[in-house]
Design brief:
By secondary structure, the protein is mainly alpha-helical. Helices cover 60% and strands 0% of the residues.
Length: 68
């Protein structure tokens, strides 16, 4: 008689270390940067748009190296 034990499931990683959700966050940051760049109403949004775009791009590059 063989006894089967259930396989140990991998513990889930925290949200900020998972590839899928963080790629979505990075993509949202990039989109927000474009919206800030092309809006004609507030100068402060235009001022921070490049920083937002670059932060989203760098985050996407880093997160794309995470394992699936």
């Amino acid at each position: 008689m063989t006894v089967r034990t259930p396989l140990a499931s991998k513990p889930k990683r925290p949200f900020f270390l998972r590839r899928g959700p963080m790629e979505n966050v990075a993509t949202a940051l990039i989109g927000l940067g474009f919206l800030m760049l092309f809006q004609p109403f507030l100068l402060v949004f235009y001022t921070w748009s490049l920083v937002t775009l670059l932060a989203g791009t760098v985050l996407f590059i880093i997160v794309s190296k995470f394992p699936e």
